[in-house]
# Entry
Amino acid sequence: MPQLAEAQKGNLPNWRANPVFTTATLNSGFMPDPWTYSIQAGGSQEVQGLGSSCVGHINYQAPDIDLNYSSGGVLGLYVYVRANSDTTLVINAPDGRWYCNDDSSGLDPMIHFASPQSGLYNIWVGTYSDGELQPATVHISEINPNN
# Structure
C-alpha cells in the first residue's frame, strides 16, 4: 500500500525543475495503456524528510518524469516501475503531497491514486545504493496491473 508522506521542513526534491527524462501529457482514457518510458533509476541523495515510508536514493535536482494528467473522474491512476533491481517510487502530486512506495509488487514499487486529481505529478524512481543507476521502466496506467 503506498504511503502518503508529510514533508518535513528541510531539503526537499526539486519538483519545480524540468524532468531529467521526459514530460508526459495524458488525458483520462489514454491509449496505449499503459504508457511506458525507460529511464535510469537512482541518484546520489538519500530520500529524507518525506516520511518513514520514503526510502532510496534519487536525483534531488529534478524529477525523472513529469506527468501532466487530466482526470476523467471515473478511473484510478497507477504509477509503477518494472526493473531487474530493487527500486523505490516517490511522487509529488498536484495537491503538493508526497507519496512513496517500495515493494508493492514483489521488489517493484507502485502507487495507486483511487481518485486522481488533474494536474502535475512529479515522479522519481530510486535505488538503494548511493549513486547506483539502474535501468528501469516507468508505467502509467488506468488499469490495475495486478488484475
About this structure: The longest strand covers residues 119-127. The chain has no helices and twelve strands. The chain has a mean pLDDT of 91. The two ends are 16 Å apart (CA to CA).
